[in-house]
Amino acid sequence: MTDVDTAGQWDQAYDAGDTTRSWFQEHAGQSLSMLDAAGTTQQDSVIDVGGGASTFVDDLLDRGHHDVTVLDISATGLDAARNRLGHAAVDVTWVVADLLRWQPPRSYRVWHDRAVFHFLTADDQRQQYLQVLNAATATGSVAVFGTFAPDGPQRCSGLPVARYSSIELAGELGDPWRLTFEAREQHRTPGGAIQPFTWAVFRR
Ligand SMILES: C[S@@+](CC[C@H](N)C(=O)[O-])C[C@H]1O[C@@H](n2cnc3c(N)ncnc32)[C@H](O)[C@@H]1O
């Protein structure tokens, strides 16, 4: 699949509206709990990779974070978040890019990925992802991952996914990342289905 195909597919998913998306949530409660478990503060810079239209950015701004970046391949997803935020959107850095080809211009204290890494089903994609993760972070940075758990769905949005335990995620990340906290979430989709997620915090 080309970048254009990938972007177009995700744009379509966002065009369809909030409640048709299995990953929709009114608040990113589990993500905030993971930041708390990692001991992050509102002074810490945060990048939400593959953030799309997620309400995580709203929650971060509400908490007083002032250095927040949201990156996604789907301009439609980011526009939905920007429009929802209104004037507050000017306080956020928005990046439309294919994460796997992105060259980070700086490093971030917190890297957040909810339901993006698990779409990378090929080794070379995961290697590219790790190169970007490592380039966008520094010693002391935290990486928070939410992926489908081993007993989670095998597909999402028509695409195959990989499923992970926290130990398996740690194996994928390798050095210099150290697993510091883990959790399990039963995400309820807008349609009422339950999707088990693995959550993990890593520090380098
Ligand atoms: C299942 S959604 C999760 C969205 C968001 N993290 C959330 O929790 O609401 C997956 C997201 O990853 C984005 N995405 C997929 N492949 C990407 C890539 N190569 N680069 C950047 N974003 C990507 C999609 O556009 C979509 O917004």
Could you describe the 3D structure shown?
Helix content is 30%, strand content 25%. It starts with a helix and ends with a strand. It has six helices and nine strands. It has a single domain (3-203), classed as 3-Layer(aba) Sandwich (Rossmann fold), CATH 3.40.50.150. It is globular. The chain is of the alpha/beta class and 204 residues long. Helix 3 links the parallel strand 1 and strand 2 (68-72). A seven-stranded mixed beta sheet has the order 3-2-1-4-5-9-8. Helix 1 (3-15) packs parallel to helix 4. The model has no long low-confidence stretch (mean pLDDT 96). It has helices at 3-15, 29-37, 56-62, 75-85, 123-135, 166-173; strands spanning 46-49, 68-72, 92-96, 110-114, 142-148, 155-156, 159-160, 178-188, 194-203. The structure holds S-adenosylmethionine (SAM). S-adenosylmethionine (SAM) binds at residues 6, 10, 23, 50-52, 54, 72-74, 77, 98-100, 114-116, 119, 156. Residues 6, 10, 23, 50-52, 54, 72-74, 77, 98-100, 114-116, 119, 156 line the site of S-adenosylmethionine.
What characteristics describe this protein?
9 strands, seven-stranded mixed beta sheet, globular, 204 residues, Rossmann fold
How would you summarize what this structure contains?
By secondary structure, this protein is α/β, with parallel strands linked by helices. It contains six helices and nine strands; from the N terminus they run ααβαβαββαβββαββ.
